[in-house]
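FAQ: What does a ligand-bound record look like?

Like this one, built around coenzyme a persulfide:
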Amino acid sequence: MIRDQETLNQLVDMIRQFVEGVLIPHENEVAETDEIPQDIVEQMKALGLFGLTIPEEYEGLGLTMEEEVYVAFELGRTSPAFRSLIGTNNGIGSSGLIIDGTEAQKSFFLPLLARGEVISSFCLTEPDAGSDAASLKTSAVKDGDFYVLNGTKRFITNAPHAGVFTVMARTNFDKGAGGISAFIVDSQTPGIFLGKRDKKMGQKGAHTCDVIFENCRISASALIGGVEGVGFKTAMKVLDKGRLHIAALSVGAATRMLDDSLNYAIERKQFGQPIAEFQLIQAMLADSKAEIYAAKCMVLDAARLRDAGQNVSTEASCAKMFASEMCGRVADRCVQIHGGAGYISEYAIERFYRDVRLFRLYEGTTQIQQMIIARNMIRAAS
Ligand code: COS
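The answer part, i.e. the structure of the complex:
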């Protein structure tokens, strides 16, 4: 749903100019230093990028899902590290509160997140609970007006910068997924320790690490929504939305890679003519164009269904699976179009090839999306 086409066009144009004028020129610097310059972070705050999806009553822009994916198509056209910094406040770090939080929790935390004053992270994955998220072991034991958290969370995006964590922890060890509760936790609470920053294949400038809870006492008021046992469902609802966002980013990144490769193919001459004239190069360009178009249509359709209030668990998984796999295929073809130059870091495609590999893994691997889609089909048919 687009609330006002003209306003959306202005926002998308502004973000496109920011991506082209500021972010793309800084991609190499971010890749080399593994840091996003602070003045860029300040510009992101000033543009309202930390609060794109936070409701307007909590100082965000309150984008609908359809509006959000149009923005993600643009943000996807530069290094994923930039989007990653604002991604948790707009996605997995705030959605749990927006969907299931109490009014007091929302009005306290959401304006801070929307302004970018506080970064949020989503603590679901653990060393022994990745795809099988419902097997998580971090415990939250009630002690009067407090809960005591113990456990380790792994690969937590933005944890080194986070002021607040959404933590999924077990309040009941006998109930499987129904024994998991969600908490909103200040990162300065005693008993929270961070691991070393992970050394990743790509996405330099985006930081992840372990978050360790050791007898960390938090107020009972930190329980999201004030209800125990529904934290797994909160996490799944968060991921339904997050997966659509990643699908849109995959479309954006594939578009950028293809644009770069088309320009390269037009300029690069071999056998006396631009390589773009060769049919085998054209096949790679055309296949990529068609697949990007297909993924974009899927993402927009799923976003519109979500805005219409439908359960889009299946569609979000279809879009995430197809778009992220498509992005991987496009990355591979684009390296191929660049030839030897595609293996050299002077060309952005070498970095994108590594960066986009994550899209097929996080917020649920392709195999988990397949499982969700098939399960939903079987459930609907029986
Ligand atoms: N929305 C709302 N509720 C949902 C839901 C959704 N999208 N998906 C599942 N649930 C509910 C189920 O209805 C079920 O509730 P009941 O017990 O009341 O029936 C409960 O949650 C448990 O669901 P399910 O039985 O399907 O859980 P499983 O453990 O079998 O599998 C998967 C769940 C595999 C889908 C889940 O663990 C998953 O998504 N794993 C990947 C995790 C992931 O993406 N990690 C990335 C880390 S974040 S970057």
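Follow-up question: can I read anything off the structure? Yes, for example: Residues 231-267 form the longest helix (37 residues).
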